[in-house]
Amino acid sequence: MAQSQKTETPSKPEPAPLALALGDPAGIGAEVALKALAALARQPQGAPAVVLVGCGRWLEESHRRLRQAGCTDLADPRMFELEDLPLEAPLQPGQVGALAGAASFAWLTRATELVLEGRCRALVTAPIAKASWQAAGHPYPGQTERLAELCGVEQASMLFTALPPQGTWRFNTLLATTHIPMAAVPAALNPALVERQLDRLLDFCRRFSSKPRLVVAGLNPHAGEAGHLGREESDWLEPCLEEWRRRHPEVRLEGPLPPDSCWLEAAAAWRDGSAAADGYLALYHDQGLIPVKLLAFDAAVNTTLGLPFLRTSPDHGTAFAIAGQGRARADSMAAAIRTAAELGLPLRPA
């Protein structure tokens, strides 16, 4: 009898790595990146492949300084692929200015190019200092706006996502407006913007639920109190949401809700492992970021939508006051890397 031959199942190709821009070299970017990669390496699935984008000499020096400060739980930077863009001169932790701004701007730009070129599948960014970018002659409100420019999109969106300590519900909050003064918010808001942001929030939440429930916060106290505390809700926001509901009958859309109670259900779900709405739309920066940071400061991930790829970032700043001391927590950076690895998809062919 002829012996049957075993057929080997072809193995799946390894996914492309993530591009990790190391942020402001005077801040905690190197520290949280190396700590996060070390923590992820201990998990069953291991750390994803990454390309570190920064200055190799500075990265090695940061690693040495952190070990001298007693921080031993660090990944060895030599174990990762490096896109080396050297600093123009040595830099000390906490040294804010044009040198750091020029470096972090260049590192973000190159990391984005790696994704657009297809060498990487998603982007993770460490924090930058807007003041240093300004000093270097780069007048952008933040990394989100620079990414939109590099990708040729009119406007990218900021969404913050976090997994609670227990349960399977995911906390998602998208900001309708981002880095603009409070006085400019009412003029920036309009039906077209809200509809576009709801579309992006819906697309993101459909990754986790086939029929998402979305909540929209009002702009004014008590969501305008029927026009007595502001007319934006009654004049255009309520009709806008009603039209969006008509076009998306499969989605349960609530709002505009009073901003001071809009996230109460999310707070309860975060504590007890239950569930709340799949997505929240905040109408301005701090309206959304206050509940996110109160509930999930060390777990939230800044996720940019509207680009041709996924970008994630930790939900904290450069922490200049503790840079180089080994005291920074890396939970949010680990969550950002893990989220990019789980949700980041290769660029679709043009």
Strand content: 5-15%
- The total count of strands amounts to 11
Shape: globular
Domain count: the total is 2
CATH superfamily of the largest domain: Isopropylmalate Dehydrogenase
Spans of at least 5 consecutive residues whose pLDDT stays below 50 are: 1-7
Radius of gyration, Cα only, in angstroms?
22 Å
Find the structural class using helix and strand composition: alpha/beta
Mean pLDDT: 92
Element pattern in H and E: EHEHEHEHHEEHHEHEHEHEEH
Q: What's the CATH class label of the largest domain?
A: Alpha Beta
Note the gap between the termini: 53 Å
What is the fold-level CATH name, i.e. the topology of the largest domain? Isopropylmalate Dehydrogenase
CATH architecture of the largest domain: 3-Layer(aba) Sandwich
Question: Portion of residues in helices?
Answer: 25-40%
Largest sheet: 11 strands, mixed
Strand order in space, largest sheet? 3-2-1-4-11-10-5-6-9-7-8
- Note the total helix count: 11
In short:
The chain folds into two domains: 16-153 and 308-350, Isopropylmalate Dehydrogenase; 157-305, Isopropylmalate Dehydrogenase (3-Layer(aba) Sandwich), CATH 3.40.718. It is 37% helix and 15% strand. It is built from eleven helices and eleven strands.
What does this structure look like?
- With 350 residues, the chain is an alpha/beta fold.
- The chain has two domains: 16-153 and 308-350, Isopropylmalate Dehydrogenase, CATH 3.40.718; 157-305, 3-Layer(aba) Sandwich (Isopropylmalate Dehydrogenase).
- The protein is 37% helix and 15% strand.
- It contains eleven helices and eleven strands.
- The chain has helices at 29-41, 56-68, 98-116, 130-135, 143-151, 185-188, 191-205, 232-247, 264-272, 285-296, 331-343; strands spanning 18-21, 50-54, 81-84, 122-125, 157-162, 171-175, 213-217, 252-257, 279-282, 301-305, 311-314.
- An eleven-stranded mixed β-sheet has the order 3-2-1-4-11-10-5-6-9-7-8, sandwiched between helices.
- Helix 7 (191-205) crosses helix 8 (232-247).
- It is globular.
- The N and C termini lie far apart (53 Å).
- 45% of the residues are buried.
